[in-house]
Amino acid sequence: MTQSELPNIWGVDWKPRSHLDFSSDVSMSDLKEELIRFIAERHDGHLRLVGWLFDEASEEYSGETLDGPNFHLFSETFVQKLSENLSSRAEEAGIMTTEVIPRRGGLLHLSRRTKRFILDVRLCLRRLAHAATVTLDQRFEWQRWMTRTRVLDEHLKDIFTTGVETPDGGRFGGKGFRSTWQEGIVACATALNLAKDQPAGLQHTGDIVAPMIRDIGLAMAMGQTPTDLFATQVGKANSLMNGGRDGAGGRDLHIGDLSLGVLPPTAPLPIASATTTGIALASQRLGLTRFQLAPVGEGCSSSGEFWEAMNFAGARGLPIAFMIQNNQIALDTFVVGQSAVETWGDKGVAMGMPAWTIDGAEPLHFHSSVAVAREFALGGGGPVLIHVETMRGCGHAHHHDDLYLGAPSGTPPGYVDKDLLAYWEAKDPLPNHRELLRTMGIEESTLAQMEEEEKAYVGAGRAAMEEMPWPVSRYL
Ligand SMILES: Cc1ncc(C[n+]2csc(CCOP(=O)(O)OP(=O)(O)O)c2C)c(N)n1
Ligand SMILES: [Mg+2]
Question: Quick one: pLDDT band at residue 451, thresholds 50, 70, 90?
Fold first, then answer.
């Protein structure tokens, strides 16, 4: 390291080592549409060039679809054309030696801008390749996990409303959070190397996630059970979050299980993502092939510690993906009151890391984004930021549903933006992804059976929690 060096562009020479095996071929037109969408999102100045070079590159491929090996070759051809086309920019503009910034002549400056752009394009193409590998079995698993999350969510609300009997004859419902419409995050798990699948004694080599309050589906996809989660809502004795004291319980849906690679969500919002960044540093220093994922809400992303975490990960090239889930609100603060950032992905770009935006209604995007982030990070590429656009289809916590959405009686009327709500309700991942599975050939009876199994499984978890003892105060 020298004083005059410019910031690292982690993974600057990164390219996928080999092709991926697709479960179904990708059509040229779908590929172009998604690539152009990404260019419009992040590099709109290059829209015409990309469209033109894409058409030129695709002329060399006779078929209308690409299988895994051909997709790989096509990606290389396209990226090559793009790099060549951009290589003469400084000369054409006559600014080869002009200092765009002190000590950065036009040639140097534009070649660095090109490198970051090319990297973004490579990551976009590889993300689409990962999406094409997804099997129907994986999708069915996501539907199962999303169903589990929704069923659990409804039980949690019911427990909050009706309560669980307490030793003094009263009832207690705890305080908990819902994840309505944000269940697609479960699909991150199929792109991770899960701790629960590691041989005994090696669980710590599995990937680490730090779910926040609306990511209980991800915690379950990592292996946490409904019983665990129920116990944390009401603080029963066997809750894992006992502060290190057996039988002490734990509350507020502060879930987590380190043996499964699930960090507990922290009450001060950004702490879990900062801790995960520290774990990523340890992974890097120990030479582990362990990947870290830190999802947060857009409100959390305003806090100082979250910026420090991203900044540090960017400087060190740590193997971590940050994920900002913009669910259109943070407790009662609207997005417009939260930040003036154009897209939340820009926050990652500000810290020197590649970033892109996904539609949170589609579990596939979570899977493919985490798959490419993991591959890139463990290949020396460093961190990325995944920006998810979604909506909180519920109150902040159970007590807040009526205030936000409105009570059935009309009082309170609810302050949610009804148009926004209708837009996202139509995109609810549960019915939509279910319908997609039907069109992909899964029988109605298979889906219905899975849903019954999940209801029974979650119901049994609640019953087990109700049987659990309450914690006993050490002062009694
Ligand atoms: C540092 C900090 N400030 C405030 C709070 C109180 N609080 C808990 S959740 C929340 C809103 C979080 O919004 P966001 O990050 O967008 O996540 P969402 O609830 O929308 O999923 C707030 C303000 C907190 N837990 N920690
Ligand atoms: Mg939010």
Answer: very high
Distance between CA 84 and CA 111 in Å, rounded?
A: 11
Cα 407 to middle of ligand 2, angstroms: 22
Q: Whose CA is nearest to atom 19 of ligand 1?
A: 330
pLDDT in tens, 351-372: 999 999 999 999 999 999 999 9
Domain ranges (residues) in the chain: 26-132, 136-467
Alpha carbons 322 and 301: distance in angstroms, whole number: 10
Q: What are the C-alpha distances in Å from 284 to residues 153, 316, 380? A: 36, 9, 10
Q: Which helix (H) or strand (E) holds 100?
A: strand 99-101
Number of Cβ atoms within 10 Å of the Cβ of 90 = 21
Kindly report the pTM of this predicted structure: 0.97
User: Based on the number of CB atoms within 10 Å of its own CB, is 172 exposed (0-12), middle (13-18) or buried (19 or more)?
Assistant: middle
Ligand 1 is surrounded, with C-beta below 6 A, by 214, 267-269, 296-300, 303, 327, 329-331, 392, 396
Handedness of CA 379, 380, 383, 389 (dihedral sign): negative
Indicate the class that CATH gives domain 136-467: alpha beta
Q: Among 175, 322, 331, which residue has the most ligand 1 atoms within 8 Å of its CB, making it the best to mutate?
A: 331
